[in-house]
Automatic annotation (TrEMBL):
InterPro entries found in the cross-reference section: AAA+_ATPase, ABC_transporter-like_ATP-bd, ABC_transporter-like_CS, P-loop_NTPase
GO terms assigned for molecular function: ATP binding; ATP hydrolysis activity
SMART domains cross-referenced by the UniProt entry: AAA
Entries under Gene3D superfamilies matching the protein: P-loop containing nucleotide triphosphate hydrolases
PANTHER family (UniProt xref): PROTEIN TRIGALACTOSYLDIACYLGLYCEROL 3, CHLOROPLASTIC
Pfam families in the cross-refs: ABC_tran (PF00005)
Sequence ranges assigned to domain ABC transporter in this UniProt record: 7-244
Keywords: ATP-binding, Nucleotide-binding, Transport
Protein name as it appears in the record: Phospholipid/cholesterol/gamma-HCH transport system ATP-binding protein
SUPFAM superfamilies: P-loop containing nucleoside triphosphate hydrolases
Amino acid sequence: MAEEPVIRAEGLAVAFNGNTVFRDVTFEVRRGEIFVILGGSGCGKSTLLKALIGLVPLAAGRAFLLGEELAAARDDATRRALLRRIGVMWQSGALFGSMTLAENVELPLEEHTALPRPAREALARAKLGLVGLGDAAARLPAEISGGMAKRAGIARAMALDPPLLFLDEPGAGLDPITSAGLDRLIVDIARDTGTTFVVVTHELQSILAIGDRCIMLDKQARGMIAEGDPRRLREESTHPTVRAFFRREAA
Ligand SMILES: Nc1ncnc2c1ncn2[C@@H]1O[C@H](COP(=O)(O)OP(=O)(O)OP(=O)(O)O)[C@@H](O)[C@H]1O
Ligand SMILES: [Mg+2]
């Protein structure tokens, strides 16, 4: 029997004030995969992430994460237990400016575990080491570059060793070389730890470099217009918007 997918989304729809952002969004994410959600600005990528983890209500459909349905988990303890197993780096996910990088990474450990301080510190340092920031643990966010801040955000999202990590536009605002370095880091973490990644991006280079599979959302279509291996979509898709995106053509 096939392994239960890490995410199963069935006919998801979200609407704000009666305006549908997307509907009929159906896909599965398998364990250890780097799954990319792509599409133009305002098509609903961040909203889809929020809907998956229950921060935005679904107008229709069902979402199962790690075998459980968040919306069906009525009590707080069940929701907390599930959310604890999911790491998120938000698009606007800033670090707390008054705290060192190590203290930022320690926050989820403080919130969700009863570990004593020295153990939290050791874990935070290990996570910062994993993203190449072992020497910057004592620095404040204002004292590091944008690329370092993104990596610290990933370290914080990984603090509790979640089997599933959501990253909303990790490469945005970075130069191409730093962004490529971040892509490499994501691939390394996925391969070394078996962590499943859901990455939102609209950077074509990133998608082709890291994406095992992807879905493409579209604002006009209010839903998915493509699904599959991004390299195959680039070669084979006949959808004008999908072709335009992957081949940098005018639609
Ligand atoms: N809380 C909200 N209330 C009302 N409308 C919202 C809310 N959140 C998002 N929207 C609308 O939903 C649509 C999708 O927004 P979303 O942030 O998901 O887009 P996105 O694909 O992540 O865009 P970007 O690439 O710019 O980050 C937009 O039209 C946005 O204005
Ligand atoms: Mg967004």
